[in-house]
C-alpha cells in the first residue's frame, strides 16, 4: 500500500543500532519509489517539497502510532490530513476486464501537493476500508517498520518473522544466558 510504503521511507539499521537514514533525501531512491508506486509529478522536488513530504510523513506516523497505542488520532491531525487531501482532485475512469469493473483514479494535477494528497488518501482509505487496530510498528526497537497486520489471529509482532523475529529471539536467548552466567558468578 502507498501509505505504509511511504512511512517506511525512513530506513532503520534493524540489525545494528537502529541508525536512521532518510531516503526522501536520496533522489535516486525517490525516483525508483515513485516509479514503483506509479506516481507522476512534473518537476524535481524542491527543498520545500521535500520538507512538506516529511511533514506529511510525520503526520501519518503520529496517526499510525496513536492506533498502535490503542488510542485515536488528534482532531487537529485529521483536520491537517483533510487539508492535504483537498489538493487531491482526481478523474475517475471506469474500466472493464475479465475480473469485473474497476474505477481508476488519476490525479488531475502533477504537483507534489497532488502526490501528497494521494498518499494521505491511501492512509484514509485504509482507516475506512480496513481495520486501523491492525496497524503495527515492528517490535524490534531498532527497526520500527510500520505495517498492516493481516494475519487471521492479529498476532504479527515483527515486520518479518524470519528477520526481525529471529534476531529478537537470538537477542532474548543471549540476554538470558548472560543473566544466568552472571547469577552463577555471584553464587
Ligand atoms: Zn522489523
Task: Summarize the model shown.
By secondary structure, the chain is α+β, with helices and mostly antiparallel strands. It has helices at 2-7, 27-36, 47-68, 75-85, 112-129, 161-186; strands at 10-12, 20-22, 90-97, 100-107, 135-137, 146-148.
Task: Walk me through the structure.
- The structure is a single chain.
- With 187 residues, the protein is α+β, with helices and mostly antiparallel strands.
- It has a single domain (2-85, 115-186), classed as Jann2411-like domain (Jann2411-like fold), CATH 1.10.3300.
- The protein is 50% helix and 15% strand.
- The protein is built from six helices and six strands; from the N terminus they run αββαααββαββα.
- The chain has a two-stranded antiparallel sheet with strand order 1-2. Strands 3-4 form a two-stranded antiparallel ribbon.
- Strand 3 and strand 4 (100-107) form a beta hairpin.
- The radius of gyration is 20 Å and the shape is elongated.
- The model has no long low-confidence stretch (mean pLDDT 94).
- Bound molecules: zinc ion (ZN).
- Zinc ion is lined by residues 14, 138, 140, 143, 145, 158-159, 164.
Order of helix and strand elements from N to C terminus? HEEHHHEEHEEH
Q: How many beta strands in the DSSP annotation?
A: 6
Helix content: 40-55%
Report the principal-axis shape. Answer: elongated
**CATH H-level name... which superfamily?**
Jann2411-like domain
Organism: Cohnella luojiensis
Protein name: Zinc finger CGNR domain-containing protein
Domain Zinc finger CGNR: 134-177
InterPro entries: ABATE, ABATE_dom_sf, Znf_CGNR
